[in-house]
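Take a look at this chain, tokens included, and explain the fold to me:
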Amino acid sequence: MNQWSGKSKGTILGYKIFVYCIKKLGIRAAYSVLVFVAFYYFVAYPTSFKAMFSYFRKRQQFSYFKAVLAVYKSYFVFGQVLIDKIAISAGLRSKFTFDFDGIDVLKQLLSEEKGGILISAHIGNFEIAEKFFAEIDLKSQIHIVTVDQEHSVIKEYLESISNDKPSVQFIYVKEDMSHIFEINNALSQNHLICFTGDRYFGNSKTIQAELLGKEALFPAGTFMLASRLKAPVAFVYVMKEPNLHYHLYTRRAPEFKHRDTQAVLNAYTESVEGMLKKYPYQWFNYFNFWKD
């Protein structure tokens, strides 16, 4: 299987441990715990190790030994991303610095009030995107669609320790498909809907495109919707950089024909590929994405 199961490995206990470390020792000190945590995941999950090794070896063209080390580094960076998310939720946003690259695109989309589709990926730290959006989304016009089936307990805990009331709204994918009505309702109000376009699970309809030199499958629904609405499409990423710094990228998608789903997907994969070439260690799909 190359699709995502819909569940991540994080637990509420793990989040509480990191919150304790962050508050008592500081963010950088909490990073030091990752030396051991990353090693545990490095040796304890051979399936994800193989998937990530294949990504670095075949897709990024790393040497054998560099690819092995890169798997460990990717776990370490992913741990940093999680700690940063917890720290920001716990009210430590001032400890970080940010670049808003393309924020004018988001402001324009909001000011036009024509609705629109924002598409991201599981790279960088997209889960803190709401903190960026909150800077400009004063009317709660941005809705983030998520399929994380463990959202309830962890999200409620993070909200309980947060000093900020989120302005961004979330739409959770449900088995009864009721989320479709929520999406349609938001679009009817000319709001922006934000999806991730790189994961599917179960019997979801898929569409194929090349990413980093090899064909892979992507969820068809996101790109079909983007191609059929007469609304703008943009790609959004939040990438981690050194010294508690983040870089928000927003890029308007090129023009495409109405209902040309493949054109939207091809533009997306080209955009994601550009990010991965710049940030190779921030690919956080720990499964057999390319069926290698």
